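Limitations
The structure tokens in this dataset are predictions for the assembled complex, not deposited experimental models. Users should treat interface geometry with appropriate caution, especially where small molecules or nucleic acid strands are included. An illustrative entry is reproduced here so readers can see what is and is not provided.
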Amino acid sequence: MAFDIHYDTKWEGDAVEIYVLVKQVPDPEAIVKVKSDTELDIENKYFTSFFDEIGIEAGLQLKAKFGGKVTVLTVDNRRVDALRRGISMGADEAIQIADPALGGSDPFTTARLIASYLKDKPLDLILAGRQAMDDDAGIVGPAVAELLGLPHVNAVVELNIEDPKKEAKVTREVEGGKEVLSCALPALFTCQKGLNIPRIPQVMNVMKAMKAQIKKIDLAALGLSAGEVGPSSAKVKIQKYLPPPKRPPVKVIKEDFPDNVKTLVKLLKEEAKVI
Amino acid sequence: MALDFSFTEEQEFFRQTVRDAVNRLIMGRVQELDEKEEFPFDLWKEFAALGYLGLRHQEKYGGMEADTVTQMIFYEELARGSCGFAMAANMQILMGTYFIGRFANENIKQRILVPAIKGEKIGTICFTEDQSGSDLGGTRTLATKVDGGWRINGRKQWITNGPIADFATVMATIDPKLGLKGLNFYLVERKTENREGFVSGQRLHKLGSRCSATGELVFDNVFIPEENFLGEEIGKGVQYAGEILNEVRVMTGMCALAIAKNAMDDAKEFANNRIAFGNHISKYQLIREKFAKFWAWYEASRAYLYKCAWLIQNNIPCINDCMLAKFHSTEMCMYAVEEAMRIYGGNAFCTEYPPQRYWRDAKFLLYGGGTHEVLCDYLGRVFCKD
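Predicted assembly:
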């Protein structure tokens, strides 16, 4: 599995600035239970959302081609492992937007926080996962682009840039085929499986990530107040979590062969209605 | 804080990173690695490229100088993937290169240690012979002083990485009559057209840990230069060996933890799905008892092993603790793999299901770092003396 990418061309223009939006989500193996109407009990096993890793890899491949800087950015009061993951893969900088007032914010608020941070920053490209693997909402990426007034393309599976100050060619999978689009830069793209295979971090970068200082940005630094975030400002609110229906009890057929086969067929037809 | 059992945020991140690498590189190949019984050079190359083989070596040679607790996290996570591959990698990281890092001159370090950390050269350590293993005083491989160096004669057995090794740290005696006081370590390289060196003897076919290459090394009057003597003083080999025995024992315990957890996690899933007499078998008290006992002993083992890692890290004498923890965790593992076999019922007897592999792999852990009979004899003696 080779991860080193070599390009013949060398970019001689201005440094390229790439931001990747990342999120730490529960590991697929983590046990998640409904605790109350609006709370989940999540086992303490988290990992970086898979689609976000694809975004980091895409950013790093572009950095290998054009030079410049890749910054990973998250909104999370507690977990910064997604940022460390980004650095261990090769990102240059990590930004954590965190503030006690952020608890209970909705995805749109998350997007506003990110947009507030990025609005004055020189940038050429923002990458994000097509959706987070926990809530599958897929809102934050496009919302950040809208708030910043940038074009965006969702779920890209190919990304080609010849001039990072001008235009990108991206491909999306659509019903029955693919759609090739050109998009003026700066822009925001959300990344879909197939765009690349995220690299496995090398241990020296893991060490660097373990020691990395994470830059923390609070509400005051963003020029926002507590009233503009959190549950009170949320436009979308969780009303109720419902657990999946419990598996019905097992029915044991106690008759001997061949009567048990007849009964089984009858049950499959009449009760389970699968044949 | 006087008592703190938590891992740091950085250590948790490290564990997650190693786990991810193991999941992606090894987990999908576990059965193949076991069935083929070949050393997976392709996997070795991929794994070495990530840099973990330098886990405990100095950064200037390409290592990461990880603290002992972090090292043990690595060993635990790697063994979760493949015990055989873990044995090969751990040999390279710890025993196979330790004395070169500790005693060799700069020239040897550049020629051997640096490529070993990159995975380009494979190393091993040789203790065991046909009549000695845990009983190091019975070592017969002879090192004879000659002009400009030493001549090594003897045969070493049960050498992990032996059949594929490029270099070996060899324990040999200057006089068998001296027992433990005659032992030293010597660096010997594989024989080539231009260099004297060891040759491989018989390769062993093993019950478990099958993808690691294990076999015999033969030293037929091999000349090595003086710089290949690994130590500061003649006759201190056993003392030097003691420097890593604690780590070796705790590392072995970490492998036991990983195999036991794998076995019982799989058994739990099986028991939660297998129906007998109208119920999932996990509803029956005799099955539940197996999990309860495992859980209690597993948590105790894990806590003790990481305590030992912490003691080593802080240079607190802990030779008895490391023996006890290795003994406890490996016996706990024996219980776990045996009970997993029983929970799987007849399915456990098929190679299609994993419990038999855990059972076979686990047996390998009984011998490294001293057989349990030798450890218990010593520990019992120490306890009674107190």
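Some entries come with short summary sentences. For this one: The CA atoms of residues 130 and 215 of chain A lie 25 Å apart.
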